[in-house]
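In this section we turn from sequence analysis to structure. A common task in structural bioinformatics is to predict how a protein folds when a small molecule is present, because the ligand can shape the pocket around it. The inputs are simple: the amino acid sequence and a SMILES string for the ligand, here thiamine diphosphate. Study the lines below before reading on.
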Amino acid sequence: MKTKNLLLGDEALALGALHAGLSGAYAYPGTPSTEILEFVQSHPITKERNIHSHWSSNEKTAMEEALGMSFAGKRSMVSMKHVGLNVAADPFVNSAMTGANGGILVISADDPSMHSSQNEQDSRYYAAFAFIPCLEPSNQQEAYDMARYGFVLSEKYGIPVMVRLVTRLSHSRAVVEVDSEYLPQNNIHFPKFGPQWVLMPANSKRRYVELLKDYDKLQQVSETSPFNSYRDGNDKSIGIIVSGIAANYLDELFPNGCPFPVVKVSQYPLPVEMISSLVADTDSLLIIEEGQPFIEQRIRGELDKNGIVYGKLSGQLPRTGELTPDAVREALLTLRPELSELRLPEPKAASQIVMPRPPALCQGCSHRDVYSALNDALKEYKEPKVFGDIGCYTLGYLSPFNAIDTCLDMGASVTMAKGAADAGVFPSIGIIGDSTFTHSGMTGLLDAINENTNMVLIISDNLTTGMTGGQDSQGTGKLEDICMGLGASPEHVRTIDALPKLHEDIKQLFLDEINYPGLSVVIVRRECIQTARRHAAAKAKQAKKD
Ligand SMILES: Cc1ncc(C[n+]2csc(CCOP(=O)(O)OP(=O)(O)O)c2C)c(N)n1
């Protein structure tokens, strides 16, 4: 029996995993993947089945924890945003070498258009690079179905399976038919072949040969995957290859069926034989994919200059930003202007429909107090440099604060401030949030401690992971101990409340520590205004009940 649920793409995938015998979900928050673990955490099955579902300190620890559960024979998943996969890249790439025991899904949610990210990287390259199969749902139903399919694939071939999501799918809702019968969880059982889990050169050399052979087999699996298909069409002048969510856009343009033959790809490695048939049957190819031109580059090769492969590299589709049904329409019209049924009245520019609103720190946000005191303190120096990091406090770059000079990736405030201090920059200041500090700042701080680098690290501690909606922060209540435990001098690990009335005190504390010729950490602390409001409302509700 099936029932119908209205679900986000993230939720559909999470529910699919819960229904398919999941035992552990691991994640570090990041848009657009955050809702996956949040859904698992709040679902009744999680409690019923004692499914592990905590936030991890970062994507690398999450990936390794999920792999540990797989080693123990149980089904696990790990979810992250695309740049999180950079952090998890070491265990991710090596997990192809160890292989999987219990099924493991590695979910990477890409963010084309950079709605809330620093780049547009496409996770499919990582999957191919590691020789890991990749599933790319084209709608919410497929996201649900792929969880079960992915676990089976992972266990059958003894390999982690990537599920690549994109913002538009993660964050839009559709009706999904879900199973009413759930698979049981696996019991603990250990890998039949142990040596490949110990990646010493002798073992790795043997395993790599197997991995390459398995990848060839996985290509054969892609040829008959329920998620890949060849749909014939009468007009053979163009063959279309469409992947993931782009398949939806094509269907939307041709509600009565596409006149061209279409290969739809939602499972990788690419179904090369299916694509070869398309190439043989048609005069030219149009490749429509969300993200970077991953399929197009593989099909085109570096030397194809004869103009029969069209897509992002040849300019029919935009190279940057999110794909849209309108972009697909335009591409088809460029190639086939006579397709008049695709023509639409001039659409209104998005800027005419929605007034753009620049982002800003919330009124009452504690980061405001940090930046206004810091800016005042730094007025006394000729060329101060402030190395920022990723979180709500990155908005300190914008007016009215204009307070930071760099923002690279999570944790880079600490290490870039150190490198600049090593170069002679004074004062060299790093500013980082509490969650980002425990994600990737601690190891960099150890470098600075070991050399007693002349810099100040400000931890702007709002007691939560604010940027992604207020998830638990792993260092809450422990930041001073962590810094001192790493070896920072207790006299130069200073804490102060982030309150407007303490403006002068915060400024003086910054000045004192800047003028100390060595490493200081200043923790400025006040709860995020958004979570504080939520906590106050929950408390009031509870008080009413009592
Ligand atoms: C590698 C990576 N993982 C996750 C994210 C998503 N993300 C951006 S900022 C942030 C955490 C911010 O929390 P915190 O440092 O406490 O600062 P706050 O937003 O609370 O001010 C996260 C999870 C990211 N940009 N990069």
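The chain has a mean pLDDT of 95. As an exercise, try to locate the residues that line the thiamine diphosphate site and compare them with your own expectations.
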